[in-house]
Amino acid sequence: MKDIYGDDFYKKRLSKTNEAANLILDHVLKIIPEPHSAVDLGCGIGAWLAALRNKGVDRLVGIDGPWVNQSYLAIDASEFRQMDFSRPLSIDGRFDLAISLEVAEHLPKDAADQFVRNLVGLADFILFSAAPPLQGGTHHINEQPIGYWLDKFKSHGFIGIDCVRPYFWNERRIGAWYRQNTILLAKESRVPELKLPTSSPEPASYLHPEIYLVKLQEAYTAKGAWKLLRRAIKRKVKAAWTR
Predict the structure, then answer these.
(1) Is beta strand 125-129 parallel, antiparallel or unpaired with respect to 97-101?
(2) Whose CB among 38, 66, 137, 153 lies 3.0–4.6 Å from 97's, allowing a Cys bridge?
């Protein structure tokens, strides 16, 4: 994953990520027990952790790789750990909340189980999102439906709770990928501690209309239209020869 994100990526994304982090975290903090510590696996420059600090969380750890330009860190350099999170992590203690947003799809499929083990080893409450098939993005090599991840977390005694996506589905101040993918995971024994405003079913797989429309537009570009035309011609030729 080294060098997949340049300086411009962080500069452009920071302000929008800050707004998304504040809106979503304000909602999540009303649901989970009050956190005093948090860890972000795949933290980037630490925008979500910085938002948590502003909300009173004092012990923070951000974990990411060598591709992060640390001159843009929104957290203290001492709070940043450079680690390969596709391998077992060595972190002292546990945290009240773990975060991993739009990270899992960047890892090889054979690293998925270890990635989940890392997360469940860090906290009993996890704010999680991962890109589903067809979302697209830089170095997305393992896009999977949410059920794929839920099954892995279930094997560790965690359940998924759909208390974020319905609440922010039409909130355009938040990136569509967060609105489409973000769920809360909780250790099953601690679910009674959650303050859920309404019944929250197990998360289902679906694609946000805004992302779907982008993909549809891409398909109808000149390049996309040419691909569709070639496929149609091949089908016609094949059908003619098989009559």
Answers:
(1) parallel
(2) 38
Residues 6+ apart with CB under 8 A from 59: 36, 37, 38, 95
Give the separation between CA 170 and CA 165, rounded to whole angstroms.
Answer: 9
State the amino acid at position 174 in one-letter form. I
Looking at per-residue pLDDT, the higher value among 231 and 216 belongs to 231
Q: Using CA atoms, how far apart are residues 87 and 24, in angstroms rounded to an integer?
A: 29
Output the six-digit token pair for 20: 């998304």
C-alpha pair distances (Å), 165 with each of 66, 108, 168? 31, 26, 5
Q: Which helix (H) or strand (E) holds 96?
A: none
* Token pair 């998360």: residue: 203
Higher per-residue confidence, 6 vs 181: 181
DSSP strand E in 29-93: where?
Answer: 37-41, 59-64, 80-82
In angstroms, the CA 34 to CA 16 distance is 25
Architecture label for domain 7-206: 3-Layer(aba) Sandwich (3.40)
Q: Is the pLDDT of residue 114 over 80?
A: yes
Give the Cα separation of 131 and 127 in Å (integer): 14
DSSP 158-177: EEEE-SSHHHHTT-TTS-HH
Q: Does position 117 have pLDDT exceeding 90, yes or no?
A: yes
CB 39 within 8 A of CB 61: yes
pTM over cut 0.90? no
Q: Check residue 3 and give its pLDDT.
A: 47
